[in-house]
Amino acid sequence: xxAENQFKQQIEAYDNWKNELIESIEAFSQWMSDQGLDEDxxxxxxxxxxxxxxxxxxxxxxxxxxxxxxxxxxxxxxxFSDYKRRLLPSEAGRTTMCPTELFYDRKTERSYLKLxxxxxxxxxxxxxxxxxxxxxxxQIPLPIDSPDDMQKILQEIVQIKEVSIKKAIQLGLxxxxxxxxxxxxxxxxxTTIEIxxxxxxxxxxxxxxxxxxxxxxDTPGLNALGCEPELTMSMIPAAQAILFILAADxxxxxxxxxxxxxxxxxxxxxxxxxxxxxxxxxxTLWDELKSKAEIENTIHEQTLKTxxxxxxxxxxxxxxxxxxxxxxxxxxxxxxxxRSQLDPLEKFLGEVVIPERGSILKDDIVDGIGxxxxxHRDTLAIRMDTVNKQLxxxxxxxxxxxDVIVQLMKRTRMEQTEYSKHIDxxxxxxxxxxxxxxxxxxxxxIPKMDEIxxxxxxxxxxxxxxxxxxxxxxxxxxEVHEMTTRASEEVDILHRLVTAVxxxxxxxxxxxxxxxxxxxxxxxxxxxDNLYIEAEKYRKSPKSTMSEQSTVVRKFFxxxxxxxxxxxxQSNDDLDKWLNNAMRPLAVRIKEKKNSIEKRLLTLRKIxxxxxxxxxKLSELEAEHAELxxxxxxxxxxxxxxxxx
Length: 645
Ligand SMILES: Nc1nc2c(ncn2[C@@H]2O[C@H](COP(=O)(O)OP(=O)(O)OP(=O)(O)O)[C@@H](O)[C@H]2O)c(=O)[nH]1
Ligand SMILES: [Mg+2]
Description:
By secondary structure, the chain is α/β, with parallel strands linked by helices. It has 21 helices and eleven strands. A nine-stranded mixed β-sheet has the order 4-3-7-2-8-1-9-10-11, with helices on both faces.
């Protein structure tokens, strides 16, 4: 009996946890509809979004390395050994030819291999855009009951084709240094070279891990990252964790270091362990003439050396043998599995990477749904308070003392007048707030951004000279840079305003309202700044790179611009949500408080007009009190389910 795969257990637990969260949100949604509180579109939308986010949540792992380091073998070993074979093609030399995503398509529930032809590189659409356009893809159904056939079909990922040098240049896939045997005077029209047949592959099949939301990105080595900027700019940064693979037999080569510095190291988040370095092929160090201790020592030394070269902590380096691990799992060889050292890596994925993803998700969900719940909790509390006050008022009336009623009415009316003054104050400060948000939005302005992009493209399309292009890029990014700097200043003002509104509200009403979280503009600024740095790097790169790879540069530019636009779009969206979150609790309280005063006045008036007896009203209120208590308890249960999950 093999030891159970830790990662599998953890991801199953993660999936269960998400399902529990979904259940508690659905319970809350049911609770609201039972109370007739579900008419509010905004709330309904937010609940829907939270449920969708949970249902569509994926744990993305990206495998990145130079060719032949064992990315694909490692994926086979960690995730797909239960097929008892090498499911994804992995061979000596260059194997994987296009970036490959493995996941389970929960929308269609189909198993397939979808391939995007390499020629799409001539178009200006991003892979993301192509994903929404099924016609461009070649689709092959995957026969999941026959792993043999599946394995055969997946060979398509490694297909190559012969094209003329001219064509390769057009596609941005020709680099001279990769073809040292080409004659100097080779005719670009008639001389052919090999290029990948496909640009991108999507594999969907119902493997339990994939069904539970795991998504894997396998990338080809050999400058694939440089050719497809979308990988570096959006796919890899979006991954929950990046696994960077080195091989013990080659050590850290110059090109390994290049990939590390250009693509991985800067994607490392300082405060989290989202990058793991795998020192693969340790079996090549299993020298039979050495003792076990000596071998262990060699592996340890290599680990330390690698850590030094990459400038990271050595506990982020995992020496493994993907090959022996796969073999051991297929043959159920416990001893070999232990030697392959896959275990600590799987443990890391299960105990560090998954919980991190979980806590990010939890923060988002609990933040969103939690604030709706606290809104209702506030409402119930105010209603309870009203009932208590009314009960108090009425209990003071022994019999039907007209004087006392008049007295009470007078006092309540005064309270009402006082209150409407506060409401005016609130309106004017929330007006200020809205105006500030509007200012911010004129800075983070999508239509304006689109206009600038259109202009930039126009000036770039006209002349693809290096200088023209560089200038257009510079202009665009100085614009974006200025935009973000100004936005961050305005956000500071916004923050001060909100704090002031809340303080005022607290001081004048004595009501305690939890201050909303600050709007985190920093996130977007960092993203935009990173893009800016990237653009500057390109802009300042030597002339030759720019002209030789104009397709690549063009792709780079398109990708960068759409990325910048996405960031702006997201920040706008979040700003709206944030504003709503910030003002809602106050608005709800104000409305409830107003209703509460009116209600009390009405009760008193009715009794005064002899339309109701004090006793009748008292028992009515007591029933209401009991009812409210039940609702409060229900809501608390839901809340603790949500936060405790
Ligand atoms: N000895 C040994 N060989 C390994 C190990 N892992 C992978 N290999 C072999 O190394 C070769 C390359 O492995 P792949 O998994 O195809 O490497 P890759 O990183 O996916 O390479 P590309 O797809 O070309 O980018 C294959 O022949 C593997 O069998 C290992 O742990 N030990
Ligand atoms: Mg591979």
